[in-house]
Amino acid sequence: MVELETVVREVGKLRDEMVNTLVELIKIPAISPDYGYEGEYDKAQKLLEIIKDWPFDKVEVYEAPDERAKNGVRPSILAYYYGQEGDKSPRLWILTHIDVVPPGDLSKWTVTEPFKPLVKDGKVYGRGSEDNGQSLVASLYAVKAMMNLGIRPKRTVILAFVSDEETGSHYGVEWLVKNHPELFRKDDLVLVPDGGNEDGTFIEVAEKSILWFKLKVKGKQVHASMPDKGLNAHRVALDLAYNLDKLLHEKYDKRDELFDPPESTFEPTMVKNPADSPNIAPGEHEVVFDCRILPDYSLDDVLNDVKALAEEVKERHKKEINGKVLPEVDIEILQRGDAAPPTDPNSEIVVLLREALKKLRGKEAVVGGIGGGTFAAFFRRLGIPAVVWATLDEMAHQPNEYAKIDNMVEDAKVMAALALL
């Protein structure tokens, strides 16, 4: 296809411009107010500045209210480049997110500081470089290449740059779906380039349910030399966490080879301990579980098991102190995402993507599911086929995060092919 070959060459010529754009975006710490930061406003403004003279047919800004964020909003941008039939063309969405996670332990950033991007050895280092800057820039320049050549694709391309992916999408895709359902059509095709593998041969069509919950145990703080005078919350929490880990793994033990890993996962992650001395038996203890559960299982069933076991543990450690029955156990849901129906492996978007990868890279892609959650699930719940795909070194959320420049450029070519084929 001569048109595709021409666009592919043009994408290659834009390599340096792509790197410069990614560098400029990394400099802005678009971190959620959930972590005490200002959110995505400044980064969205920078993005609008970058594309202000590009010949998009329409650019829309949607602002989800969030009083914690800068200017009280969490912005998302939609940029439309119409296909050959104008706004009546079939449509391809490419959705990336503008928010990033916090940098974490700064002492582990040994190549550069998180928001001082560095170009080195064919990579761009910095927080948010791969997650999701690499794909955001790739999507931009897939369209820019067509613009430069005056080519209208077969499909209208809608580039969506959204907020709040890292903390649940409540102010991003979920907010758009709830408040602006008119934006979406059943025959839309959706690419979410926010997951993949090193050679770009994995197409994600299914996700597990996600459940994050916090167990908050309250006992009675006491001097460690006199444990009988109080109730050590650590001991209760350790009992609960150990037996809960065992119960969940044993009861929800199905395997589905579509997913990697093929089983449900139940991982204790964060722990909080207010005791600040070795000789204090603490009166409080918190532990967080991150659960990624196969679609076969109901999250309500899992939560009911958690509650039932918490009651058993409370009874096992029951003690009355100063007229109050302890321990207390509170279960707080931090995030819940019930699994969406999978995208049909024979759907148009999957077939197109496999065709593009075969044409451009000579590779056969495989289709599967993951434990991580993406906002592809919101589209699947609407009955809109969505796939997650990108070529990634899987540096997301790590210190010294980087984006490989070759991955960014080559993925832009595939994105353009999806619009043209």
Automatic annotation (TrEMBL):
The keyword Cytoplasm does not apply. Residues 205-316 form the Peptidase M20 dimerisation domain. Pfam families: M20_dimer, Peptidase_M20. Its cofactor is Co(2+); Zn(2+). GO terms for molecular function: hydrolase activity; metal ion binding; transaminase activity. InterPro entries: ArgE/DapE, Bact_exopeptidase_dim_dom, Peptidase_M20, Peptidase_M20_dimer, Peptidase_M20A. The keyword Cell membrane does not apply. Keywords: Aminotransferase, Cobalt, Hydrolase, Metal-binding, Transferase, Zinc. It comes from the Archaea. Belongs to the peptidase M20A family. NCBIfam families: DapE-ArgE, PRK13983.1. This is Diaminopimelate aminotransferase. It comes from Thermococcus profundus.
